[in-house]
Structures are given as structure tokens and as C-alpha cells.
Design goal:
Elements (H helix, E strand, L loop, with lengths): L4 H11 L30 E4 L17 E5 L6 E2 L2 E2 L6 E3 L4 E3 L2 H12 L3 E6 L13 E2 L7 E2 L27 H8 L3
Parallel strand pairs: 1-2, 2-7, 8-9
Antiparallel strand pairs: 3-4, 5-6
Length: about 180
């Protein structure tokens, strides 16, 4: 798409909200090398999978040649309002973070062994240990998280209090890192 065409298309898209019923056709000549911005993937061939990852089933409509996005791979899960701490890859032992990459590797292996191609890992819910040192309040004060958000419908939705909890010292060993990098 040429840089001159981009503002026009953006204005057309922005005006769509004010048009009740209209047919709009957008086009771009991709035979011109300068119009190509990158690869456009068919997102209908990518399916999302959520925990648990003990097994992964190919749906009736088939996934041959398809990809899967794996969501919440590091833990932070809950079931019926209860935290599922045993599934987390990061834990707090009272003094420091303890990293356990085996659950992550097992989850990746389940997908890879199913024959489905792994497109990406979505780091959605932070592990429960990352809620350490967070103050929750019952009434909004503009500073703290609300107590009702401590355990959302799908688990932990609260970000870590510190980026150091995800520091270099917690990364997998070279042996484990190589196993993870084998993903297609």
C-alpha cells in the first residue's frame, strides 16, 4: 500500500462508523513490490487452545495444516474460583521466585506430539506468585487493585508488581531452552 493511499483508506475506515448501510470495497495492487508490507496470514487456519494441556484433540472439522495458539501456558489458572497453584511455572518460596519449566515443556510437547503446528505461545495469565506484595482493596482508590479482581473468571489477570520477577536468572537452562526452540 502506498503511503499516499494509507491516509485515504484510514479516513474511509473511520467514516464507516457513521454510515448505516453501505458497501465499501478496499483494494490494493500487490503486484507492485512497494505496496507489500508483509505476510498476511489466514487467521481462520489458527485455533486457540486453553488449559489444561494434558491432551489436545483435533476437532471434527479437522486441523490438518492448521496452527494452534496456546494460551495461559505459564499458569495463573483457576477452577471454580480456586487457584490452581500446582500448574504454575513460577512460584514464590517466601524469599525468592522458584522457576519450574517442566510444566511448560510438557504442555508444548503435548501440542507438538499431536501433529498440530504450534503458531505462538500467548503469555496471558501471569502465574499466581506474581501477585506477591500487591495490595487489594474493596473500594477503588486509584492506586490499588480491587479485591474482586484478585481471581478473575479465567484466573490471574493482575500483572506482576516488578519486572525483576521475570529476570534473566529464571530463564530455562540451555538444555531446556534448546528443547523449547525446536518448535516449528
Amino acid at each position: 500500500m502506498t503511503s499516499a493511499l494509507r491516509p485515504f483508506l484510514l479516513s474511509v475506515i473511520a467514516s464507516l462508523g457513521s454510515i448505516a448501510e453501505a458497501q465499501v470495497t478496499l483494494s490494493c495492487d500487490l503486484t507492485e513490490a512497494g505496496n507489500k508490507q508483509g505476510v498476511i496470514y489466514n487467521f481462520w487456519d489458527t485455533h486457540n487452545r486453553l488449559p489444561p494441556y494434558e491432551s489436545i484433540n483435533v476437532p471434527a472439522f479437522g486441523m490438518e495444516g492448521s496452527y494452534v495458539n496456546c494460551v495461559r501456558m505459564l499458569g495463573g489458572w483457576s477452577k471454580k474460583g480456586e487457584r490452581m497453584l500446582d500448574y504454575d511455572c513460577y512460584k514464590w518460596d517466601g524469599e525468592t521466585f522458584v522457576y519450574d519449566w517442566e510444566p511448560l515443556i510438557r504442555r508444548i510437547d503435548v501440542v507438538l506430539n499431536s501433529g498440530i503446528q504450534l503458531k505462538q505461545i500467548v503469555l496471558d495469565n501471569p502465574p499466581w506468585a506474581f501477585q506477591r506484595a500487591i495490595t487489594f482493596v474493596d473500594q477503588a482508590d486509584g492506586l490499588h487493585y480491587l479485591a474482586k479482581d484478585r481471581n478473575s473468571t479465567y484466573g490471574n489477570a493482575v500483572p506482576p508488581t516488578s519486572m525483576t520477577c521475570n529476570g534473566q536468572s529464571g530463564y530455562p537452562s540451555n538444555r531446556k531452552r534448546r528443547r523449547i526452540q525446536k518448535m516449528p
